[in-house]
Amino acid sequence: MADEVNSSAEKKLTNEELDALRADYYKAKDEWNRKKDEINKKIDEEVESRLRAKEKEFADEAEKKFSQDAEKINGETAELEKLSSQLGEAAKKVSGILVFKKMAAEKKAFDAADRLEEKQAELKKAETVLSSEKAIAYYRASSQKKILRDKIAENYPMPAEPVAPKEIERDVKTSKLGANGEFKEAILSTLSDGKGRTVTDVMNDCALVSDLSNQRVSAILRQMTEDGLIRREIIKRMAYFYMEGND
User: Fold this and answer.
1) Are 129 and 200 part of one and the same domain?
2) Which of 100, 112, 144, 243 minimizes the number of CB atoms within 10 Å of its CB?
3) pTM of the model
């Protein structure tokens, strides 16, 4: 009896009061979205700054390795050039009677020349590696972007999302569903029992969409899947739709 008295005593809001509630809620929601966008922008800027710093770090590492390799190769090249020159001079000084010694000296000079070419090729390869490493430095840094963003976001707490008053809760829920919101709401209600359904099953079990074409219902279900409202599973070559969160 007391519940009936309380129920009858509840004040029913006028259309003007409901409109005012909606206006206040959407104003608060717009402000929340603005602040959220500002925070996300700051996070993205910091992420980009950190990625650029990481890119430079990777590029500097590649430059340092190249400098070390180049220094080693150039040192070995200088030694080979000196040896090649000495062998060439020695070969010229060997008299004709010592033809075998002359040939041996020339062979050593040719071998040194070949090794010089190899060192030049090594240096060229190191230059190519350096160029490649510097080119992909940003992409290497970007591979850590999600982890980095999550870590940075911890320093930027998001404001609490405004909660719609219960008097306009249904209106807000339908508006969140976007286009075909009424149909989506009805489909969600149908799928709330946890049972998986094909497109045909949805049309049979959900009176509101039963008169729609199969193509339109399929399009609505596809959109709901993309929005994360429901999930789609293939079972024995048939697509079944479930309320997201139900197993």
Assistant:
1) no
2) 100
3) 0.50
